[in-house]
């Protein structure tokens, strides 16, 4: 759901506008800044890389993100997650839309969230609003592999990555059993070299 696709209740709109004119004007101005030239806008949580269909938990404690979550929960329960570019320190230009599937507010204003990621988007334009990032985005259409060769290449890559991850976990467990942080680090160096 976006502001462009939601029907407005005329009666409720008139009641709110009449009884809360300042709040109505502020919210309308916020909403107007979020709708641009056919692209959608969404708040961004700047944290880490996330891929479609991934699930994760978040603990929200920063005041700017607490405000953002309250606003998201009043709306469509969706936001973008984006990583920082390690070279520049600014957000990268591709994000992933996530949906808040569970939101547990804590008495001190923090939140514990369960998220599920859906689709990727490209950041067209970003700006700060009330301390957090907001971006105008366009959706990325991922094209699945078509040919048998593309599918085989993808399977091989996936298998290789899974094998590497299993090997790394085994080395970490062995190092923990032996109590040797140095053993683990040296085994990683050997594997990389």
Automatic annotation (TrEMBL):
InterPro entries, per database record: Lon_prtase_N, Lon_prtase_N_sf, PUA-like_sf
Domain Lon N-terminal: 41-187
Record's protein name: Lon N-terminal domain-containing protein
Source species: Brassica cretica (Mustard)
């Amino acid at each position: 759901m976006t502001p462009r696709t939601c029907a407005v209740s005329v009666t409720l709109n008139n009641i709110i506008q009449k009884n809360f004119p300042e709040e109505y004007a502020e919210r309308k101005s916020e909403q107007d800044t979020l709708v641009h030239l056919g692209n959608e806008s969404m708040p961004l949580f700047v944290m880490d890389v996330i891929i479609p269909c991934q699930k994760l938990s978040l603990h929200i404690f920063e005041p700017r993100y607490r405000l953002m979550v309250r606003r998201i929960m009043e709306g469509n329960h969706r936001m973008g997650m984006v990583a920082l570019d390690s070279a520049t320190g600014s957000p990268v230009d591709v994000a992933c839309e996530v949906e808040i599937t569970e939101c547990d507010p804590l008495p001190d204003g923090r939140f514990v969230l369960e998220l599920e990621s859906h689709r990727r988007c490209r950041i067209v334009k970003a700006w700060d609003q009330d301390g957090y990032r907001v971006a105008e985005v366009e959706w990325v259409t991922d094209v699945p592999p078509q040919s048998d060769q593309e599918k085989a290449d993808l399977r091989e890559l996936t298998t290789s990555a899974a094998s590497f991850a299993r090997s790394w976990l085994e080395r970490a467990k062995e190092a923990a059993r032996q109590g040797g942080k140095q053993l683990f680090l040296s085994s990683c160096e050997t594997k990389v070299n």
